[in-house]
Write a structure and sequence with these properties.
The structure holds two protein chains of two kinds. By secondary structure, chain A is mainly alpha-helical. Chain A has three domains: 131 residues, no CATH class; 83 residues, no CATH class; 298 residues, ABC transporter involved in vitamin B12 uptake, BtuC, CATH 1.10.3470. Helices cover 68% and strands 6% of the residues of chain A. In chain A, α8 packs across α9, α9 packs parallel to α11 and α13 packs antiparallel against α18. Chain A is globular and about 95 Å long. Chain B folds into three domains: 31 residues; 255 residues, Response regulator (Rossmann fold, 3-Layer(aba) Sandwich); 111 residues, 3-Layer(aba) Sandwich (Rossmann fold). Chain B is 39% helix and 18% strand. In chain B, the strands form five sheets. Chain B has a seven-stranded mixed β-sheet, sandwiched between helices. Chain B has a five-stranded parallel β-sheet with strand order 2-1-3-4-5, with helices on both faces. Classes of the chains: A mainly alpha, B alpha/beta. The interface between A and B is large, with 66 and 61 residues.
C-alpha cells in the first residue's frame, strides 16, 4: 500500500505537468471495468489501490462515488457507471468524464458495495490526490486526512504542497500533517522533536491520539518529548472539558426550559396538574412531521424553512387541543387536584393512542434543516448547531412569554385571576375565558416546544412521556407560579446534571439530582422563587 | 326380570344418547378452530416495536389458513394487549391460556415481560414463542427462543470488529441502556474481550436510563476515549427509543463510522425508519436477518408483508423473521404430533427444521434455542443494511454463556431422559443458577 501510494504520488506530480492522454484514459477505463468482476470487499480494495496508483486526478470521481455507494454495474453489459438516484430510476453518468449516460431502473443495476475499511482506504487515497486541488476547503480536508493517517511516503508530496501553498491557515495544517508523517518515518530524532513540538501546539484530540501512539512506540528523547506534550495537551483539554460540561448543562437546561415553560403556565400560574402536558409537546412534534411531509411532497425547495412554518401551526394545533381539554374537562374540576390529575392522565393516554392509530406506532422521521446540522468548534469546544439554536429559541420563547405576562392586558388579567379570582371577577374580568385562554397559551407553548424537540428526540407517540416528570421537577424546583423560577430552575438542573454525569454516570447522576431536589423541597417547600403574599394560599 | 330389562334398555338408551352427544360434541370440536395467542403490547412504550410483530403474526396465520389451516382446522388469532405493563403480561397470558384455551402463544419483547409470564406458562403448561434477541442465561421447558442468544449476535459482532475487515479494533466502549439485557450482554462481552487479551483500561462501560435523550456528555466521552491512538469501536446495547437521539448526536458531533464505528444489537430497520441515515452510513448492526437479504424467500415475505399491511414503505426486521421461523416450526411440530396438546408439541418441537429467510434452514435444538446464521450489516443512506459479513455456517444458540463463571458448566437438554434446563456437567445434577 505504501509503495503503491509512493509510486502514485510521484506519478501524480509527473502527470499534473502533462495533460492526461487518451491512452491513460483507456488504462483507467480498463481498471474501472474490473469493478464488475470483484467478488468481495478485498478484491474491490485491490482495484481501488490500482486506481490510486495511477495517480491520475481523474480517478477522484469514480472513487468518491464508490465511497458514497453511488457506483453501479449495469447488469446487461457489465459497464460501470456513477449513479444518481432519481424518483423512480437511477440516472447514469460516465465514471471518468461525468457525462450523462442515460438512466436505468434499480433492478437492472448492481450497486458496488463498500465497507468501512474500503471507505477509509478511499478517503486516504483521495487525501493525497486532492492535495493540489484549487478549492482550499478540499485542501484542508486532504491535510486533515493525512494528519489522521500519517505515512512516511506523504512527506515528499506534502513538502511540495507546502512550498506552493498561499493560504496561511491551510499551510499550517499541511505542516502539521507533514510533522505527523515525520513521526512515523525513520527521520533523525531532531526532526521528530520539532514535529512533536508542532503537533503539541495543535493541542486537540487528534494530536493527542497521534502522540499517544508515538509515545508507545518511541524511545529516548522522542518518547520523553511525546510524554511532555501529552501532559500539556491533557491539562489544556481538562480546562476545555469543564467548559464543555457547562455548555452541555446550558444546552440541557434549554431543553428542560422549553419542555417546562408551558407547564409553568398551566401548572405554575393556573395550578392545574396537567399530566397531558407532554402530549401537547408530542402534538407539536407531529405537526412538524406533517408540515415536513407536505413540504417534501409538494415544495421541496422550502425544506429549510419547514421549522419556521411549523411553529405557528404547532402552536395553533396544541392550543386548540388545550382549549378543548380545558372547556371539556378541566373547568369542571377546578379545585380538585386529584381528579384533575387522573382526568388529564386519561386525556394523555387518549391522545397517545389516537396518534398511534393515525400515524402508526413507529418513529416518524423529522429531518434537520441544513442550518441545524453539524457542529462548529470554539477552541476545543464542539458546539452542535441544533443545540445552539434550541438555546436561542428557548430564550426567545421565554422572553416573549414574559412580555405577554407582564406587559399586555391579557397577561394582567391572567395574573389578576390567579392572584384573586373573586376580586378579578367582580372587576368585570370574564374569569372562565381567561382560564381557557391561559390553558390554551400554555398548551400552545408546549406545542412549539415540540417543534424544537423534534430536532433532537424521536417523534413517536411516547415523546411526551420522557419530558413530563422533568417538566414538573423544573417547575416545582423553580417555584410554582414564577416564570423566572422556571428559567433558573431549568438551567441549574441542567448544569448540575451535566456536571455529575461524567463522574457518576447518567443513571446515578439523575438519582442524585432527584435526591437533591427532594432535600431542597424539604427545606423550601415553595421552590427557589416562592410567590409571596395572599396569592399563595389559593 | 321385566324390571331389569326395562332398566337395561333405559341404561342402553341413555348410553346411546350419551354417545350421540359425545359424537356431536367431538364433531363440533372438529369444526372448531385452533386458537393461537398473540401477546404483544399494542399501547405504551413498547408498542413501537411490538405492534409490528402482532401484524406479522396475523399475516402468518392468515397465510396458513389460506393453505388449508392446520390438522384440518382453521387457525384463529386471539390478540390481547398487555400495554407495556409487565405484570399485565402475566395476567393476559393466564387469560389466553385458561379462558381462550389457546394452543400456543407468540409474544413478549422485553426480558422483563418474558420473566413475568414464565411462571404462568409452566403452571398452566402451555407454549411461548419468544422472538427477540436476549441475554441468554435461561432455558425453560415451555418456552422456545427463536431470537438470538448472545453467541448468535454479540460474540460474532465483536469478532468481526476485531478482524482485519472490521478494522482490527483494540479499544472498546460498551454503551447500554440500564436493564438486564445490556448488563448481562456486556458482562459476557467484557469476559470475552478479556479472554482475547484486551486489557481492562481499553474497555469502557457506560449505562444510561431508558428513553435517554441528552447524549452530549456520553458522545464526547466516547470521542475522548477514542483519542488514545488505538482503533476504537462502540458496542451499543442501547434500547429502542434512546437510539434516535444517540445517533443524531453522533452525527452532529461528527463521529464517522470510518473512525469510531458503532455496532448496535437493538437497532434494526424499524428504528432507522425514524432517522435521516445519511450521517450514519457505515455504522453497524448485528442480526440474523436483514430486510436487504437477497433470497427468493425473503422477497416473497416482504411482498406478502407489504400486501398485508397495505403500505409499501413498512420495513421488515429480525424479530419478524424469528416469528416466521417459530410459527412454521410450531405448525410442523403440530403436524408431526398430530395434536395441539402442548406436552406432545413440546416433545415434537426438538429437531424440527424449517427454512429461514436468509437462504438456509433453522433447526430447533434440544435447549429450545434455534440455529441461525449471523449477519453483520452496515447502515446505508436509504435506511437499509448492507451485509458485510456472514458466518460461514449456522450458529447454534448457546443459552448458558461459556464466558460467565456461574453458567459455564451448565447445559440444557429438554429431551428425555435428561429433560433439564440447567444441568450442571461438573456436579452431574439438574439445578443451580437460573432455576427461575
Amino acid at each position: 500500500m505504501k509503495i503503491f501510494r509512493a509510486i502514485g504520488l510521484t506519478l501524480l506530480f509527473l502527470l499534473t505537468t502533462l495533460s492526461s492522454s487518451g491512452a491513460a484514459e483507456a488504462d483507467l477505463r480498463a481498471i474501472i471495468a474490473k469493478f464488475a468482476t470483484a467478488a468481495d470487499f478485498s478484491e474491490t480494495g485491490v482495484i481501488v489501490r490500482e486506481l490510486t496508483a495511477t495517480g491520475d486526478p481523474a480517478v477522484e470521481r469514480p472513487l468518491a462515488a464508490l465511497a458514497e455507494g453511488n457506483l453501479y454495474i449495469r447488469a446487461a453489459d457489465s459497464m460501470v457507471f456513477v449513479g444518481k438516484e432519481g424518483s423512480d430510476s437511477i440516472q447514469l453518468f460516465d465514471p471518468l468524464s461525468g457525462e450523462a449516460a442515460g438512466e436505468a431502473s434499480a433492478d437492472d443495476l448492481t450497486q458496488i458495495g463498500v465497507n468501512n475499511t474500503l471507505r477509509r482506504t478511499i478517503r486516504d487515497a483521495l487525501g493525497t490526490l486532492t492535495l493540489g486541488s484549487k478549492d482550499p476547503t478540499v485542501r484542508i480536508a486532504a491535510a486533515d486526512t493525512m494528519f489522521k493517517t500519517p505515512d512516511a511516503a506523504n512527506i515528499e508530496p506534502l513538502d511540495a504542497a507546502i512550498a506552493g501553498e498561499a493560504v496561511a491557515s491551510v499551510k499550517a495544517l499541511l505542516e502539521q500533517a507533514r510533522a505527523a508523517s515525520i513521526l512515523v518515518s525513520d527521520k533523525p530524532d531532531a526532526d521528530k522533536l520539532a514535529a512533536i513540538a508542532l503537533i503539541g501546539a495543535r493541542g486537540d484530540r487528534d494530536a493527542l491520539s497521534l502522540l499517544t501512539s508515538v509515545e508507545a512506540n518511541a524511545s529516548g528523547a522522542v518518547k520523553e518529548a511525546a510524554t511532555a506534550a501529552i501532559a500539556s495537551i491533557n491539562s489544556t483539554l481538562a480546562l476545555w472539558d469543564a467548559g464543555q460540561n457547562i455548555w452541555y448543562g446550558i444546552s440541557l437546561g434549554s431543553v428542560l426550559l422549553l419542555a417546562a415553560i408551558g407547564l409553568a403556565i398551566t401548572f405554575g400560574v393556573m395550578g392545574v396538574i396537567n399530566m397531558a402536558h407532554g402530549e401537547m409537546v408530542m402534538l407539536g412534534a407531529y405537526t412538524t412531521f406533517v408540515v415536513q411531509q407536505v413540504i417534501r411532497a409538494s415544495f421541496p425547495g422550502l425544506f429549510d424553512w419547514s421549522l419556521v412554518i411549523a411553529l405557528p401551526l404547532a402552536f395553533l394545533v396544541a392550543a386548540l387541543v388545550g382549549l378543548a381539554i380545558e372547556r371539556g374537562i378541566i373547568r369542571f374540576l377546578y379545585g380538585r387536584p386529584l381528579e384533575t390529575l387522573l382526568a388529564t392522565w386519561g386525556v394523555s393516554l387518549i391522545l397517545q393512542q389516537a396518534v398511534r392509530t393515525i400515524f402508526g406506532p413507529t418513529n416518524q422521521e423529522v429531518g434537520n434543516p441544513s442550518w441545524m446540522s453539524g457542529s462548529f468548534g470554539i477552541g476545543q469546544l464542539a458546539i452542535t448547531w441544533n443545540r445552539l439554536w434550541i438555546l436561542v429559541f428557548a430564550l426567545l420563547v421565554f422572553g416573549v412569554l414574559l412580555y405577554v405576562m407582564k406587559r399586555t392586558p391579557w397577561g394582567l388579567q391572567m395574573r389578576a385571576v390567579t392572584a384573586n379570582r373573586r376580586m378579578a371577577a367582580s372587576m368585570g374580568i370574564k374569569t372562565p375565558w381567561v382560564d381557557a385562554l391561559t390553558f390554551a397559551l400554555g398548551s400552545g407553548i408546549a406545542g412549539i416546544a415540540g417543534v424544537a424537540l423534534s430536532q433532537i428526540d424521536n417523534v413517536s407517540p411516547n415523546l411526551g412521556r420522557g419530558y413530563i416528570i422533568d417538566s414538573f421537577m423544573v417547575v416545582v424546583f423553580g417555584g410554582v407560579g414564577n416564570l423566572w423560577g422556571t428559567l433558573v430552575g431549568a438551567f441549574s438542573l441542567g448544569i448540575v446534571n451535566k456536571f455529575l454525569e461524567p463522574y457518576a454516570g447518567a443513571v446515578l447522576g439523575k438519582i442524585v439530582v432527584l435526591v437533591l431536589i427532594i432535600l431542597f423541597i424539604q427545606k423550601r417547600p415553595r421552590g427557589l422563587f416562592a410567590l409571596k403574599g395572599r396569592a399563595v394560599e389559593a | 326380570m321385566r324390571g331389569n330389562f326395562a332398566k337395561i334398555t333405559k341404561i342402553l338408551s341413555a348410553g346411546v344418547v350419551a354417545a350421540g352427544l359425545l359424537a356431536s360434541a367431538s364433531a363440533r370440536a372438529a369444526e372448531d378452530t385452533i386458537k393461537v395467542g398473540i401477546l404483544h403490547s399494542l399501547s405504551g412504550t413498547m408498542a413501537i416495536s411490538e405492534t409490528t410483530l402482532k401484524d406479522a403474526m396475523l399475516m402468518l396465520i392468515e397465510e396458513q389458513n389460506a393453505k388449508g389451516g392446520l390438522l384440518g382446522k382453521k387457525l384463529e388469532a386471539v390478540v390481547v394487549d398487555p400495554a407495556s405493563n409487565w405484570p399485565l403480561f402475566a395476567e393476559k397470558a393466564r387469560e389466553l391460556i385458561s379462558k381462550d384455551k389457546v394452543a400456543a402463544v407468540f409474544g413478549c419483547w422485553t426480558s422483563v415481560s418474558r420473566k413475568s409470564v414464565l411462571p404462568v406458562f409452566s403452571e398452566l403448561d402451555n407454549i411461548l414463542f419468544y422472538p427477540v434477541q436476549y441475554e441468554g442465561e435461561e432455558s425453560e421447558r415451555n418456552v422456545f427462543y427463536t431470537g438470538a442468544a448472545p453467541n448468535q449476535q454479540a460474540i460474532p459482532a465483536v469478532d468481526y470488529l476485531m478482524s482485519k475487515d472490521g478494522g482490527s479494533v483494540k479499544r472498546w466502549v460498551l454503551e447500554g441502556t440500564d436493564y438486564v439485557y445490556p448488563r448481562t450482554t456486556n458482562k459476557i462481552l467484557e469476559a470475552y474481550l478479556k479472554s482475547k487479551g484486551v486489557p481492562a483500561e481499553d474497555i469502557m462501560i457506560n449505562y444510561t436510563p431508558f428513553g435517554f435523550s441528552d447524549w452530549q456528555t456520553e458522545v464526547s466521552a466516547i470521542k475522548k476515549f477514542g483519542s488514545a491512538g488505538k482503533k476504537t469501536a462502540v458496542v451499543s446495547t442501547v434500547n429502542g427509543d434512546a437510539n434516535v437521539p444517540f445517533y443524531k448526536e453522533l452525527g452532529n458531533q461528527g463521529i464517522k463510522a470510518e473512525d469510531i464505528p458503532v455496532m448496535a444489537f437493538s437497532v434494526g430497520e424499524e428504528e432507522l425508519a425514524g432517522l435521516d441515515t445519511k450521517p450514519l452510513v457505515g455504522h453497524l448492526a448485528a442480526w440474523n436477518y436483514f430486510e436487504s437479504v437477497n433470497t427468493p424467500e425473503n422477497k416473497k415475505f416482504i411482498a406478502d408483508w407489504h400486501k398485508f399491511i397495505k403500505n409499501n414503505k413498512r420495513t421488515t426486521n429480525d424479530p419478524m423473521e424469528a416469528h416466521y421461523i417459530g410459527f412454521n416450526m410450531w405448525v410442523k411440530a403440530v403436524e408431526k404430533a398430530g395434536t395441539t396438546d402442548p406436552d406432545k408439541v413440546i416433545d415434537a418441537m426438538v429437531g424440527v427444521s424449517v427454512p429461514n429467510l436468509t437462504g438456509g434452514y433453522s433447526t430447533m435444538m434440544p435447549n429450545h434455542h434455534i440455529t441461525k446464521p449471523v449477519l453483520i450489516g452496515e447502515i446505508q443512506a436509504n435506511g437499509q443494511f448492507q451485509t458485510v459479513s456472514k458466518t460461514p455456517g449456522l450458529v447454534m444458540g448457546d443459552e448458558w454463556s461459556d464466558y460467565l463463571p456461574d453458567s459455564k458448566d451448565l447445559i440444557s437438554d429438554w429431551r428425555a431422559p435428561l429433560s433439564c434446563g440447567n444441568f450442571n456437567v461438573k456436579t452431574g445434577k439438574c439445578g443451580g443458577k437460573g432455576t427461575n
